[in-house]
Amino acid sequence: xxxxxxxxxxxxxxxxxxxxxxxxxxxxxxxxxxxxxxxxxxxxxxxxxxxxxxxxxxxxxxxxxxxxxxxxxxxxxxxxxxxxxxxxxxxxxxxxxxxxxxxxxxxxxxxxxxxxxxxxxxxxxxxxxxxxxxxxxxxxxxxxxxxxxxxxxxxxxxxxxxxxxxxxxxxxxxxxxxxxxxxxxxxxxxxxxxxxxxxxxxxxxxxxxxxxxxxxxxxxxxxxxxxxxxxxxxxxxxxxxxxxxxxxxxxxxxxxxxxxxxxxxxxxxxxxxxxxxxxxxxxxxxxxxxxxx
Length: 293
Ligand code: ADP
Ligand code: MG
Hints:
The protein is α+β, with helices and mostly antiparallel strands.
């Protein structure tokens, strides 16, 4: 008899601190759920960066697929959002270590702060501490992670409902896993189905992750062609002459939440003892909540 994945799935209990963090994520840090996407994209970009670094010593890790990318796939019908990268990936042990325990001491400090704070402050704290991965349980009732470590054949699946335990098993069919890297599939809660809408996801990505140094593509529905939504270079790092008026306007709308044209756009680079780039906009119309933000 052949063993099925069901039989080989091992169940693990989250480390106590993770369970505590997850509980807090779901129950108190509820004000700005959009941040989960920024966290998953930032992890995907980190994974690409780690691969680039390891490939300096071991170029064969890149194989024929040297160009890093992050792909978001929306599936409204089955209420799923997938974030996939072709970065370094995770082995079985790395998955258990990275997604089942809290290795960083900063997180403990975060939890203490957050328990003492109000919910509204929570989302900002997530940003400061980068609590990251677990924030996806703010919007997902179940999360599947399928990953293949660069340079290895085997692939592993990690799955959890964020309520105390997770299970790890070999990926059932090897084609289900990315050929390299990680796919994170969120089975969204009923009240989070807006995260399968192209417009919403695109807005959040441009707003929060427009600066991520890896190109981001969006697949609107399974089977559709991916469309690139960010090119992996921050707008403000480009020379002024390479940026069109539309790009400035799009970016302005993304960060400001306004739908008008900027009245004034200022973009310059200063070089000297300190080097910096500035990009500033003056809105074309008064924001409706200017005196009551
Ligand atoms: P941080 O990014 O600050 O380390 P996270 O909670 O966001 O914390 O992620 C925890 C860990 O999970 C990461 O450090 C990494 O080891 C692993 N991880 C998460 N997402 C990915 C991914 N897409 N590819 C590879 N490893 C990942
Ligand atoms: Mg992270």
